[in-house]
Write a structure and sequence with these properties.
Elements: H1 21-32, H2 37-44, H3 48-58
Helix pairs in contact: 1-3, 2-3
């Protein structure tokens, strides 16, 4: 299959911002305080997968 070049990006693509070092530190701190990934995701309005990615890189 050939790739198209210079076409418009689909509006269905979710654009996510990268978390700052400070925001990642908050996630790690909450985890250190005993919060679970789903609780942290809910508290900080993040996806659970984002929290798990931070765990896998930081811990």
């Amino acid at each position: 299959m050939h790739r198209r070049t210079l076409t418009k990006t689909s509006v269905n693509v979710a654009h996510r911002k990268e978390l700052s070092l400070y925001e990642r530190g908050i996630v790690v701190g909450l985890a250190g305080a005993g919060d679970t990934a789903p609780k942290i995701a809910t508290k900080l309005d993040l996806r659970k997968s984002t929290v798990f990615d931070i765990f896998s890189k930081a811990l």
